[in-house]
Design a protein that fits this description.
Beta Polymerase, domain 2, five-stranded mixed sheet, 7 helices, binds ligand 0O2, transferase
Length: 210
């Protein structure tokens, strides 16, 4: 195996294990026919090129990545409602198979770009043949609306390298405000939506039983 692959292999393990655990939370709710605060879970190991770029931009020495780059292993939890985000944060904080070492709350402190999400930096122990190893990982928790905005902005950022034309910048800020409004409106009708979703899933269950 190459040097980079060897370095990243334990991070692959973190992502694989954490994805299973976060999906397990979702399953426990849906098994009971309850609203799950987790809609879906994704994860990735940061691509080598992105690691190199970030290390250059932030002045992180390549021989100190393990300590200073905390999002090499990244998990993303997407939720229906803003309230779900806080429930997921609490569920993660109450686990004893990981330690939350930092909260980055970009909900109450929105980024200048318009980015909103709740980030948790965790320390996660994996079991290797050489023994236990603790690695950092970042869990980003956001609503579907926040995810939509961040995904679009991320691709545009890639294209324009952060130097957005004024018109696009304005539209992105407006789109972020619209996503915010959508989340607020959905929260207001949350109970109605949840009842409807439960009726719908009961109905589907019955059909599948036939
Ligand atoms: P990737 O892997 O391509 O997503 P900083 O770089 O200072 O903003 P820091 O200290 O590395 O952030 O950590 P932080 O603030 O927890 O967030 C880093 C990650 O959050 C980013 O990863 C993005 O995934 C996401 N993020 C933060 N700000 C924005 C934003 O304005 N727009 C979008 N779309 N995503 C954002 P990377 O490193 O960009 O890489």
């Amino acid at each position: 195996m190459e040097k980079w692959e060897l370095f990243l292999a334990p991070y692959e393990q973190v992502v694989t294990e954490m994805k299973i655990k976060l999906k397990g939370i979702r399953k426990q709710f849906t098994d009971k026919n309850e609203h799950s605060p987790i809609e879906f879970v994704t994860g990735r190991v940061k691509p080598i090129d992105s690691i190199k770029t970030k290390s250059r931009l932030k002045g992180i020495p390549l021989d100190n990545l393990e300590e200073e780059m905390q999002d090499i292993a990244g998990l993303r939890v997407t939720c229906q409602f803003v309230e779900d985000i806080y429930e997921v944060v609490n569920l993660i904080k109450s686990r004893n198979d990981l330690t939350v070492i930092q909260d980055r709350d970009y909900l109450s402190h929105e980024k200048e770009s318009g980015y909103r999400s709740y980030h948790l930096i965790i320390e996660y122990p994996i079991q290797l043949v050489t023994g236990e190893k603790k690695l950092y990982a970042e869990i980003q928790i956001r609503t579907l609306a926040m995810n939509f905005w961040a995904t679009i902005e991320h691709s545009l950022n890639y294209k324009y390298q952060g130097e957005f034309p004024e018109e696009i910048n304005k539209r992105l800020i407006r789109a972020s405000e619209a996503a915010n409004l959508l989340d607020e409106e959905m929260s207001k009708i949350r109970e109605e939506i949840q009842e409807a979703q439960q009726l719908f899933s009961h109905g589907r269950g019955k059909q599948q039983d036939r």
